[in-house]
Specification:
By secondary structure, the chain is α/β, with parallel strands linked by helices. The chain has two domains: 4-270, Aldolase class I (TIM Barrel, Alpha-Beta Barrel); 281-345. It has 14 helices and eleven strands. It has helices at 43-50, 64-69, 98-111, 125-128, 140-153, 172-187, 210-220, 235-245, 261-270, 281-298, 304-315, 322-329, 335-345, 357-364, and strands at residues 21-23, 26-29, 32-34, 57-58, 62-63, 89-94, 115-120, 160-165, 192-196, 225-229, 249-252. The strands form two sheets. Strands 3, 4, 5, 6, 7, 8, 9, 10 and 11 form a nine-stranded parallel sheet that branches. Helix 8 (235-245) packs across helix 9. The model is unreliable at 1-14 (pLDDT under 50).
Length: 365
């Protein structure tokens, strides 16, 4: 069994070439892709990731009830927006009741999403209290019924996938329920399962157990693609997980916020090239302006700066003076504020820095 501490040590062998990832009939390509992140994985973030080497993306998770009530009003229409550049793109869904869940999945299909992903992994307390997300790992019969109805209503040519954590907790009962649901997903013909190496009870605290991912991949063999998740904050982390656990791919969550360069860095390492230098300050500013413009074209004018602020705070981690820059970014209220921060901190083209994994983790937990 692998100790989770091994997950962050430098690999002793050369980085392996990355085997292209497929999902059903869809060619995904590089098997290092962005995860679905509530409050972050909107169209602008997905497009920026795509332009930096990501070959697939997922929208932020949506509730089935919300989807069924969704209108074309300006305030909410962006949830179903898909940019022409980002196919294939997946829509992630969460809910409690199997029939309503399936109807929500159909709404995502009608919106043009290429893959439907079922969320059985969200650990947020208010989600669990409403019998959604990770709660389904405690009730295999309902979970499998959700998957069955979703697979039946979604057209055959559109893959259905599932996101899971390794269980509600570390009990034997929780472990048995996990594998019951996973085996049910295989029997129903799901294309892939993304497995987070933490339990629902852990949320984001403590290490992700990569040894469990290896065990899962050994259990399923080639019957279904397994994507690993958890503690992926650098390009080397992503390649280490694939090498140490034999998963078919990985999904990068918090490590991709404000760090789209992680995808091109992964590709460079996997093809035997050296790790690219961190983006310079001018390049960082260019990408932030590009991201801001996408926000302005996606959201009402008064909302874009406030939504962009949280991304700017994350982008600041690549600045050598990241603490002072972060404080400046936190005060952004308008496009003018944004440009003022760039003028103050990014006008001189200095070398950037790699994001510190431990700082990143501590800010998120």
């Amino acid at each position: 069994m692998l100790d989770s501490s091994l997950s962050h040590s430098p690999p002793k062998s050369q980085n392996p070439s990355l085997k292209p990832l497929r999902s059903g009939n869809l060619e995904i390509g590089v098997p290092v892709v962005p995860a679905a992140l509530s409050g972050y994985s909107d169209l602008p973030m997905r497009v920026i990731a795509r332009r930096h080497g990501a070959t697939y993306g997922l929208c932020e998770v949506m509730l089935d009830q919300f989807l069924l009530a969704l209108s074309k009003r300006q305030k909410t229409k962006h949830f179903l927006d898909i940019h022409p550049e980002e196919h294939p793109v997946g829509g992630q869904l969460m809910g409690a009741e199997p029939e309503q869940f399936a109807s929500g999945a159909l709404k995502l299909v009608e919106a043009g999403f290429d893959i439907i992903d079922v969320n059985f992994g969200c650990p947020v307390k208010k989600v669990l209290g409403r019998c959604r997300g990770g709660f389904h790992l405690s009730q295999p019969d309902v979970a499998i019924e959700v998957l069955r109805r979703t697979r039946e209503i979604v057209p055959d040519e559109i893959p259905v996938t599932v996101k899971m954590r390794r269980g509600i907790d570390d009990s034997d009962e929780s472990r048995d329920k996990f594998f019951t649901i996973l085996d049910g997903a295989i029997e129903l013909g799901l294309a892939a399962a993304t497995i987070h190496g933490r339990t629902v009870e852990q949320r984001y605290i403590g290490p992700s157990r990569w040894s469990f991912l290896k065990e899962v991949k050994q259990h399923v063999g080639d019957r279904i693609n397994i994507l690993g998740s958890g503690d992926l904050f650098t390009a080397q982390d992503c390649l280490d997980m694939i090498e140490q656990t034999s998963v078919d791919g990985v999904t990068v969550a918090r490590g991709a916020i404000g760090n789209p360069w992680i995808f091109e860095q992964c590709l460079a390492l996997a093809t035997g090239n050296p790790l690219p230098e961190p983006p310079s300050l001018h390049r960082q500013a260019e990408v932030m302006r590009e991201h801001f413009a996408l926000c302005e074209s996606t959201y009402p004018e008064n909302r874009a700066p406030l939504l962009m602020r949280k991304f700017c705070i994350k982008y600041s981690q690549s600045h050598p003076d990241h603490e002072s820059v972060r404080l400046s970014m936190a005060r952004i209220r308008s496009r003018e504020d944004f440009e003022a921060v760039l003028s103050e901190h990014y006008s001189q083209d200095r070398a950037g820095t790699y994001i510190d994994r431990e700082i990143h983790k501590s800010q998120e937990e």
